[in-house]
Structures are given as C-alpha cells and as structure tokens.
Amino acid sequence: MKYFSTNNPKHQVSLSEAVIKGLAPDNGLYMPERIPVLPQDFFDQMAELSFREIGYHVIGALFSEDLNESQIKELVDHTLTFDAPLVEVERGIFSLELFHGPTLAFKDFGARFCSKLMSMVVLETEQKIRVLVATSGDTGSAVANGFLGVQGVDVIILFPKGKVSPLQEKQFTTLGQNITALEVEGVFDDCQTLVKQAFLDHELNQKLLLTSANSINIARWIPQCLYYFYAFSRLPKNGEKVVFAVPSGNFGNIGAGILAQQMGLPIAHFVAATNVNKVVPEYLQGLPFQAKPSIPTVSNSMDVGNPSNFPRLQSLYGGDEELFRENVKGYFYTDAQTIEAIQAVQPKGYTLDPHGAVGYLGLKDFMAENPGYVGVFLATAHPGKFKDVVEKALGEKLVLPERLAAFLQGKKQVIPIGKGFDEFKGFLEGLD
C-alpha cells in the first residue's frame, strides 16, 4: 500500500518511508491510499473474538501488503498486552478505559505499536533514527516508555516548561538511556512548531535521520482504531445507535475512530469534546478553521490551539465539510465545568480524570439533544496522572497505582532551551 501526503495526493511513499519520515516533505500528513472495508462476517463474529484476534483482522486488512502474517501477529501481540475495559458509569453511558498500559494513558497503544514497527524498519537501515516528539503530557511518557532501550533509536522529547503535570513529567524526564527531554520556554504549540521546522530543514535532514512518534506518524495514529472495534464488540446495544465521545487535543484519537468507521464499524456519530482550546468545535459549528494560541487548562493534554491532525480529518471526509460536520458534533468546556463533572460523577462510584470529564460532558450533552443512542466516552488517562487537580476537586486523596507512584522516585533530567529554532537546530547538530 502507498501513503499519500494530505498536502499533495500525488506525493506517495511506501509504509517504510512513511514511518521513518513521519511527516511528508511538503509538511503534509501521510494517509493510506485506500481504506479497506472489513467483511460482514468479521463484524458478525466480533463479539466472540479476543482483543488480539480483532487486532489481527484489522491490522491485517491495513498492512497485509507490506507485512507478513508473522509480523502482523508480532505487532499486535506487542501492542495489546493490556485490556481496555468498558465500564458502565450510568445507564446507557460507558467509559472506555484506555489507561491500563505501562504509563496509564491511551497513547500506550500507539506508542507500543510504533516502537515495534519502527524497530522492524530500523533493521533496513544502518543509520540511527532520531525520534522527535512534542508533548503536552501523555505523548511524552507513552513514547519514552515505548521506545526505552530500543536499539538504533534515540528519542528527543520537547515539552513546555511548567505546563505538564509533575507526574507526567516524571514519566519521561527520569528514564535516561536513549531518552532525552528538552524543557522548552514556551507552550505546546511552540514545541510542535520546533519539531515541524526540524523535519522541513534540508540541512538537518541531510545529516540526521529524523522521524516523529507524535500522532502525525502513521504508525502512532492507525493502531488507535483497534480499541474502537473492541469497545463496540463489548457494548450492549439493544438496537440503539452508538456514539463515541472523544476528548480531543491534536485530534488523532478521534481520527482513528473515524478510520474504524470507514473500515465498516457501524458507529453512528462522534463527539469531539475539548476544553476552551475550541478551534475545532467552532469549525464544526460552522465557523472557518482558524488556529489560535493555546490556553492553559486543567485538562492540559488538550491544550492545543493548532491541532496537527486536522488535515487528516479533512482527508478522511474527502474535503467534504458538510459530511464532516454531519458526522462529528463539537462541544467545549471550561475548567469550572470540568471540575463540576468530576465532582458530579464521583458519587456514582466512578473517578474521572479532567480529560475523561470533558468527554463525559460532551457525551451527556449530545445524548440530551439526540435520544436513542448508547454512548461511550474515552477515559484517556488514569485520574492519578492529574492527582493535584482531581484531589482538589474531590477534597480527598487518591491512591496511586504502584507503577505510577514508582515514577515519582526518579530524578528529573532535562536540558532547558528557548523556543527559537536556531537553538534547537544547534542541539540536534551536536548529536553524535
């Protein structure tokens, strides 16, 4: 299968090149030239299949032209080593818990898949791969832990100083080995801009083999579709239509859900739920898309003013704005509303993190306006990753999972840099 740039469909590359480069030379995102539709008998038997068995079918349909059956099995087995349970929070509303992986965030799925696929690709080149990652929180920890110790790959993580939760920071600044953390004097969008500038710098790319493990990389983005299939297969639908509400920042996660839908999964609707960084909800309400500076919030992993996956969403809908807006409903919420949701759901016996709370609010508002749906919101991170916010909201202490608490014992190791590209380029040029 070939992969084309969202900026120029005529620019097409192999899977290997799409994974290694991450971003097309024209700054576009790579997309598969076609989206396979799975056969009806797969959907008929899906409820009887395990998570991994579902994965073999889905990843097989997407990658069978480039990978053999053994490689597909190895990829899926490496990725799906933990569950993604559905928990009914209230009647007809389910939480899809995506935080049972190594760093307790949904990005563990994509990061593990990406690291395994990239390690396969590394075997085809003698040059060391440098993975550049901009993070507003969970991406950094998931990628760092997914790539830790992978031979032939160095990971450089850029994060905004003072704008990532202390626990998230610890998950990627204490590891050492092949992981380097750069603390940027700026916001997440500055980090993302530095990474994109590096990919487009001809001089740097002549010297270094640079790639990305952000959701702009096809190998990070595509495997996220797997848990939509799995959740749908475990959902008691009783003839009702299904809506998924996705807390959204860079919009890769909801894009993966739309990919699953276009592969034949009968999801009726999507909700894109954000904090006050609301450029996409405003677009979905009929305004032109306009990138804006990001605003810090308690749901910091969604503090993105220029979502990098927006062109991928446009591509999925073939540039049809009307179809896009028909299929995806956008909502945004303030910090006060987010805190209120955490407080309101706790008596039901369920603890939300700030991002899951935004997803829950979007789902509730959609279902109030559209009866006849069963709804799933994505719980993208364990509430303990946002311990200070959740404890303050609830007025009680959280008990951290053992593997999360262990990160707090590590010693932070960072290199501080400004947000100017010349300084970042100088750092990269100094690498061996």
Description:
This protein has 432 residues and is an alpha/beta fold. It folds into two domains: 85-106 and 221-394, 3-Layer(aba) Sandwich (Rossmann fold), CATH 3.40.50; 108-215 and 410-429, Rossmann fold (3-Layer(aba) Sandwich). 42% of the residues lie in helices and 17% in strands. The chain is built from 20 helices and 14 strands. The chain has helices at residues 15-21, 40-45, 51-63, 69-79, 107-122, 138-147, 166-173, 188-200, 202-207, 218-221, 226-233, 252-262, 279-284, 310-316, 321-327, 335-345, 354-369, 387-394, 402-407, 421-429; strands at residues 3-5, 8-13, 30-32, 86-90, 93-97, 129-134, 153-160, 179-184, 209-212, 241-247, 269-274, 328-332, 373-379, 415-417. The chain is globular, with a radius of gyration of 20 Å. The mean pLDDT is 93.
